[in-house]
UniProtKB/TrEMBL annotation, chain A:
PTM remark: C-terminal thiocarboxylation occurs in 2 steps, it is first acyl-adenylated (-COAMP) via the hesA/moeB/thiF part of MOCS3, then thiocarboxylated (-COSH) via the rhodanese domain of MOCS3.
The UniProt record lists the keyword Secreted: no
Metabolic or biological pathway, per its Swiss-Prot or TrEMBL entry: Cofactor biosynthesis; molybdopterin biosynthesis
Superkingdom: Eukaryota
Gene that this sequence comes from: MOCS2
Taxonomic source organism: Nothobranchius furzeri
Protein name: Molybdopterin synthase sulfur carrier subunit
TrEMBL record, chain B:
Organism: Nothobranchius furzeri
GO terms classed as biological process: Mo-molybdopterin cofactor biosynthetic process
Source species taxonomy: Eukaryota, Metazoa, Chordata, Craniata, Vertebrata
Pfam families recorded: MoaE
Protein name: Transcript variant X2
Gene name of this polypeptide: mocs2
InterPro entries in UniProt: MoaE_sf, Mopterin_biosynth_MoaE
Length: 85, 137
């Protein structure tokens, strides 16, 4: 599967970009393994380990053993701690 | 009598207008408009003075999260009539409003509670981030 990854806030600074395509992503995949794929591509993201969640198709997903079924073109966002309002 | 209810959200790079937010929720069936304004506070971070903030957002998901939040508010306070939330994006100077929300309701009690809940939940769930602009004092 090819998914679009969006980086926000600190994760965008660490990865050096705001958006990229991630190709050959297996499905189903655990959120922990998906985070692992991102870490291999952008090792500087490791600083955020334990502080981020993902958003898959605009639903928050904790980084854990939860299994995700991804489809081509799905949006996955890296979500550092929120600070709106 | 119309049962139409409004949930209106806006992310704006321009300064926010309290009047616009209030006008969006006013209704002849409501005796109360409850308002919260979040302002950018002058602060110190690591001994440096905050002169402003920069906000960014996952805009499409902000919409979906605020839609869920409004549905949640209406479940808890069914008499709430209209909800309007405006939030800044980009640079905001100290003293300016970062977020303005208004909720109309027939009586004040539910509107006041709903608006407190609304800001707490926005801070907890809306994919919005701030970054401080600091100067050395």
């Amino acid at each position: 599967m090819t998914v679009t990854v969006l980086f926000f806030a600190k994760s965008a600074e660490l990865a050096g970009l705001k958006e990229e395509e991630l190709v050959a992503v297996p499905t189903p995949i655990s959120s922990k393994d998906l985070w692992g794929l991102l870490l291999r591509k952008h090792p500087r993201l490791l600083v955020l380990e334990g502080q981020v969640v993902l958003a898959v198709r605009q639903q928050y997903v904790a980084i854990c053993d939860q299994v995700l079924t991804l489809a081509d073109g799905d949006e996955v966002a890296v979500v550092p701690p929120l600070s709106g309002g | 009598m119309s049962a139409e209810v409004r949930d209106v959200f806006k992310l704006s790079r321009d300064w926010l207008s309290v009047q616009e937010v209030v006008d969006t929720v006013s209704s002849s069936s409501c005796g109360a408009i409850s308002v919260f304004i979040g302002t950018t506070r002058e602060d110190q971070v690591d001994g440096r003075k905050v002169v402003g903030l920069e906000y960014e957002a996952y805009e499409s998901m902000v919409q979906s999260e605020l839609t869920k939040l409004c549905a949640d508010i209406r479940t808890r306070w069914p008499s709430v009539r209209h909800v309007c939330i405006h939030h800044r994006l980009g640079w905001v100077s100290v003293g300016e409003a970062s977020v303005i929300m208004a909720i109309s309701s027939p009586h004040r009690h539910e509107g006041q509670q709903a608006v407190q809940y609304c800001i707490s939940q926005l801070k907890a769930n809306a994919p919005i981030w701030k970054k401080w602009l600091v100067v050395t004092v």
